[in-house]
Amino acid sequence: MCLSLKQSSRQVIKEGELEKRSENFLQLWKKKTCVLTPEGLVISVADEGFLKARRGPAKELRFDSIKTVDCVERKGKYVYFTIVTETKKEIDFRCLDETGWNAQITLALVQFKNERAVRAARARHGHGGDSRASCRPGSGTGSGSGSGSGAFPHEARD
């Protein structure tokens, strides 16, 4: 597998072949070798399943630039889907039904966005301060308040 040094240290979720619809007038389906990572989808030119000599580095669709995976449709042996970017660009792909690329990309995108939302929430709340402060002894909540007035008034006191 030919990934740049920047990409080689990443965790690979899935790798294999996808077909991408060209953006030219003919809109032909072109085979691409793809690598799905927790950060996005790396796309290289493919020729019969092997990487071809490229004029430049592999293209990367980073999850922070992807809005959604949309328009999933099954026709015959293929699943067709569209990746919609934050700039509303639509990129059409298809894969063999049994490969599950659309589901894997969708799950990885959801996980990426969830992790980003958690990081943002923690940053807003002071990097995850001690949320247990209201449960400390003597605060009247949680166990160990030591007041003797339990939550059940019918309990006998010693």
Describe, in plain words, how this protein is organized in 3D.
- One of its GO terms (molecular function) is phosphatidylinositol phosphate binding.
- Keywords: Cytoplasm.
- It is a single chain.
- Helices cover 18% and strands 35% of the residues.
- With 158 residues, the chain is α+β, with helices and mostly antiparallel strands.
- The protein has one domain (5-122): Roll (PH-domain like).
- Strands 1, 2, 3, 4, 5, 6, 7 and 8 form an eight-stranded antiparallel sheet that branches.
- The chain is elongated.
- The chain starts with a helix and ends in a 34-residue tail after the last helix.
- The model is unreliable at 1-8, 48-55 and 130-158 (pLDDT under 50).
In CATH, the architecture is Roll
Instruction: Report the top-level CATH class.
Output: Mainly Beta
Query: Assembly type of the shown chains?
Result: single chain
Q: C-alpha Rg, in Å? A: 25 Å
Tell me the count of domains: 1
CATH topological fold name = PH-domain like
Counted by DSSP, the helix tally is: 2
Principal-axis shape: elongated
Low-confidence residue ranges: 1-8, 48-55, 130-158
Between the first and last Cα atoms, what is the distance in angstroms? Answer: 73 Å
User: Topology as H/E string?
Assistant: HEEEEEEEEH
Query: What's the main sheet like?
Result: 8 strands, antiparallel
Query: What's the overall average pLDDT, rounded?
Result: 78
Structural class: alpha+beta
What is the beta-strand fraction? Answer: 35-45%
Tell me how many strands there are. 8
- Fraction of residues in H or I helices: 10-25%
What is the CATH superfamily label? Pleckstrin-homology domain (PH domain)/Phosphotyrosine-binding domain (PTB)
